[in-house]
Amino acid sequence: MLYQQLKTILIGKEPFGDILGQEEVKSSLKSALLMGRHVIIVGMPGVGKTTLAKNVAKLLPEIEVVKGCPYHCDPKDPICPQCRSRKSLSAEKIRGEQRFVRIQGSPDLTVEDLIGDIDPVKAIQYGALSLEAFTPGKIFKANRGILFFDEINRCPEKLQNAMLQVLEERKATIGSYSVDLTADFIFIGTMNPEDTSTEKLSDVFLDRFDLIHMSYPETADLEKQIVLSKGKKMTAFPDALLTMAIHFVRLLRESDKLSKKPGVRGTIGLYERSQSHAYLNQRKNVTFEDLKAVVVSVLAHRIALKPSVKFLQKPEEFIEEQFKQISEMYEEQADRGESL
Ligand SMILES: [Zn+2]
User: How far is the CA of 182 from the centre of ligand 1 (A)?
Assistant: First the structure.
């Protein structure tokens, strides 16, 4: 099985180097993966769930697959109808990161999309249970790799049940047919804890997974490191001003008036847009004015106000007001001679 290949890799030093911080998350993920358990990473958008799952794919060793097969069949033991009907198969090598398959959870996703379909014409021609009549679904593309199921709680209940059967019994039922699922993959799902537009995952469903909670960068310092490593660079950004920008986003996250909070993409947005604003105004350094000029455009749509506040204030006004408060605070500090 695929997860067994991770045994020696996960014990090494910092296998999840693409994510800064998040030590608890990393440790939970490692122990879950070692036992081949299915995990769901719970966290708000923009905390790094996808990056972390892609990092797992990257760790997988290089493997030999049938050249051109979308299901990454093993030349010695092919699973898809096409490879199985061919007499000779040519092989190629692919890296772990090429075996990352993302499925976006949505109410429109059907069991057939996910698992596959029986072609009625071929079923008559070859027999209903013949391999030739079966068109494999998306799940098979994750064969020998990572199945990353984003926002699994957005899927209809019927699909959740089909997923359960696949993960538990490695079997799937399509209509009245039962399909043996020989695909081998590591399952990593995600869900947004505050997404209310979705179906609740049943207890039976959740009982099959380990949940790993992932939140925003633990400290402002870590967030700064992330911003500096991921954000584009154009003009110099004074450190004190960047600290303030990060502090501002982190204060918004603590606000009890918000039902949707800005993630790290918001902070990176402030970093990048302030620089380009400075550049357009022919400045070599980002100034307070640059940050102030972009703050609404970057952050207002990344927040949502709770109903109690929503009728009194627009998100744009809320951001402006909060930004004014934090700037005054920083000004006072500067007046007192404390460094920004
Ligand atoms: Zn194949």
Answer: 12
